[in-house]
């Protein structure tokens, strides 16, 4: 056993931090796209569009039923062999696509549950005053569903941030990739990966604190 | 003038509204009574198309709609001429009292916000809730919520106001204030169709009482006749059961 090379670690921190923007970029873009896709999937699940419902169920089942890493490999290494136009896609884009599809399947379910959690009589009240279905969803149901789903969605965002580390396996130099490269020269693998772990940990803890505040805020909303 | 003919609603095999004919004059206040499970709520819900009838014709003013082939636009038009007060209030939880009343004015009737807000505040004043304008439903008592629910319906200036047991979900202490507000609405000769178990109230404000049984209007007449000289044996039994 040897002592941790703290000096080496401190020196590495700014290097790895330099890749935090890429991590956040992948997670934020992935989250934004996943929110849009998940909302569409959830609304379909609520209204059960004939002919579309089975496709949505299949999509959700597949992306929840298989590991994210397997999905990323399928997209990045597998699909271009079948679909030629995908050969142009770089690792970052593939990672964002994979994260989006994977997490949208999970988020669709929590958004669907949140929509179902909005008291049915409010839907009827909206219809009774002559609102169209679109007005009812936009103005009454979805704003309340968003609040119900928000804490869960923050959890998925945290999972997505951690999931971006898998982009490393697609050849993307993000935090993991950078640490790997640094350690390859210094042989200080433990220190290098520990720095990565600590940076993830700090980011996630910060988000956890934010989530607690968010929940307090949401619990107070509509109560005054 | 509201004219309903042959209104029929089935849930699966069960016929819940069995070819109901009903005419309501402008400004008439009609109260529906009857045992539970006879289709009173369903009748009201069909008139608002919250439940879709399988057959029948509904005319309100110049709008006539054939239930079997009502288009989406006709359904919206019908809903815009009727206002519904729910047993459990059904206020929008993400809107304040004032916004609950404004919602239809802004979103459906496309009134300018300032105008809608002025009308909402005027309605709140009538319901005695001016000081609660900016409260969310969760912060209101049951009685206050139902007064907002009635206010939301009043603000629509609908041709027909439908009340489905508006006091049944309330703690007894709040019933009086809600009935008082309904009396005030009735005093303006607003056309109203009310399902209630408050027999004293029915006797007092109704121009006509309908007794429903098994999806049909079995007997109808002015309160003195229904309560004083009921003819149908089922009505007699019902009245003795509710102690009226
Ligand atoms: N959505 C529904 N699906 C199936 N049956 C229903 C539904 N709504 C009402 N019913 C049935 O229709 C009948 C009339 O119900 P309702 O109109 O609520 O009666 P009331 O208001 O007079 O108590 C009842 O037997 C009830 O079980
Ligand atoms: Mg009922």
TrEMBL record, chain A:
As for membrane topology, the entry says: Multi-pass membrane protein
List the subcellular locations. Answer: Cell inner membrane; Cell membrane
Boundaries of every ABC transmembrane type-1 domain copy: 20-208
Asked whether the UniProt record includes DNA-binding among its keywords, one would answer: no
Q: Does the keyword Cell membrane apply?
A: yes
What are the TM regions of this chain, as residue ranges?
20-43, 55-77, 83-103, 189-207
Q: Which Pfam families match?
A: BPD_transp_1 (PF00528)
Which terms are listed as keywords in the entry? Amino-acid transport, Cell membrane, Membrane, Transmembrane, Transmembrane helix, Transport
Q: Where is the signal peptide?
A: none
Tell me which InterPro entries the record gives.
Answer: AA_ABC_transptr_permease_3TM, ArtM/GltK/GlnP/TcyL/YhdX-like, MetI-like, MetI-like_sf
User: What NCBIfam families is this protein classified in?
Assistant: HEQRo_perm_3TM
Q: Which family does it belong to?
A: Belongs to the binding-protein-dependent transport system permease family. HisMQ subfamily.
- Know the name of this protein? Amino acid ABC transporter permease
Q: What is the lineage of its organism?
A: Bacteria, Pseudomonadati, Pseudomonadota, Alphaproteobacteria, Rhodobacterales
From TrEMBL, chain B:
PROSITE patterns annotated for this entry? ABC_TRANSPORTER_1, ABC_TRANSPORTER_2
Q: Which Pfam families match?
A: ABC_tran
Keyword Transport listed? The answer is: yes
**Which family does this protein fall into?**
Belongs to the ABC transporter superfamily.
Top-level taxon of origin: Bacteria
Annotated Gene3D superfamilies: P-loop containing nucleotide triphosphate hydrolases (3.40.50.300)
Give all residue intervals belonging to the ABC transporter domain: 2-239
Q: What is this protein called?
A: Amino acid ABC transporter ATP-binding protein
- Does the UniProt entry include the keyword Protein transport? no
Going by the UniProt record, its keywords in alphabetical order are: ATP-binding, Nucleotide-binding, Transport
Q: Which InterPro entries match?
A: AAA+_ATPase (IPR003593), ABC_ATPase_HisP-typ (IPR030679), ABC_transporter-like_ATP-bd (IPR003439), ABC_transporter-like_CS (IPR017871), MetN_ABC_transporter-like (IPR050086), P-loop_NTPase (IPR027417)
Q: Which organism is it from?
A: Paracoccus spongiarum
Which GO terms of the molecular function aspect are on file?
Answer: ATP binding
